[in-house]
Amino acid sequence: MENLDEAVLKQWIEESLATGSHVLAAGYQGQTLVYEGEHNHVVIKTPHGKGLARRFHKKMLRHEYAVYQQLGDFDGAPTCYGLIDNQYLVLEYVDGRTIRTKRPLDEDEFHRKLFSHIRTMHARNVAHMDLKRKDNLLVRGNEMPCILDFGAAVIKKKGFHPFNQYRFRLGKQFDYNAWIKHKYHNRMRDISMFDRKYYKPTWVELIAGTIKGLYAD
Ligand SMILES: Nc1ncnc2c1ncn2[C@@H]1O[C@H](COP(=O)(O)OP(=O)(O)O)[C@@H](O)[C@H]1O
Ligand SMILES: [Mg+2]
User: Fold this and answer.
1) Sorting pLDDT into bands at 50, 70 and 90, what band is 216?
2) How many CB atoms within 10 Å of residue 130?
């Protein structure tokens, strides 16, 4: 961040939260603010709630920060500028729209690039886990994908951690399934021979899908 003092930004964040201003998005875990200064355009994810809930949301933001560090220099996600006061996650503002409201002009190129980002992420021992959600995927101004929201991501640990490594494998499969879902808009009949090997609904997703089906109107 250029010419942006942490203490000044922290004060700005706390004033914005108190007055409910500069809100880009409000989710269950917290609010996402947008700061536009002369030299900087950043997004700040903040924790929500009081007491135990707040502690949990702070922990998720610290985890998300750790994921960004694990990813290192990665052009498939916003640049992470840091974690202020151990609770405010500062990210590069990415000009774009989520795939909920915008389809990329060149879908093939978009999905090719997204696949390559997923492979890079996995090679760096990160599985996203929540890529199915359309709010977590942006189409940038240049029509390329940008992956957001690493709150639920799994970092694969080194050594003997069977449960973590099981979750990581599951997470990688979630990511591939999400990629297929976006690429084929749920028209699974059309999956190409090449892509078929990446699509394997996991038991977790099958159960979640059944529950969703039960409650769908
Ligand atoms: N770096 C960013 N640049 C632009 N928009 C962003 C950025 N990060 C988040 N957003 C917007 O804010 C929304 C919520 O962000 P997200 O990280 O998914 O938070 P949550 O954990 O609350 O789901 C996204 O759907 C997107 O519209
Ligand atoms: Mg999200």
Assistant:
1) low
2) 20
